Amino acid sequence: MCGTLVLKKRFLLCLLVLSQLALAGCGYRGALYLPEDATDNQPTQEAAPATTPGDRN
């Protein structure tokens, strides 16, 4: 009889913790939106050509 009471308390505690985590989400706030142009966020600097240690021109 006492064992079922402990299980019920554990279940309720787990349910409470999971519901709080679900409500908290990722922590981001504000409206979600898609950026108008994704290229604005890309760096404009081009990568240097790859060289190997043996290449000498």
Automatic annotation (TrEMBL):
Residues 36-57 are annotated as: Disordered. Its main location: membrane. It is a lipid-anchor. It comes from Alteromonas pelagimontana. It is found in: Cell outer membrane. This is Lipoprotein. Residues 1-24 form the signal peptide. InterPro entries: LptM_cons. Keywords: Cell outer membrane, Lipoprotein, Membrane, Palmitate, Signal.
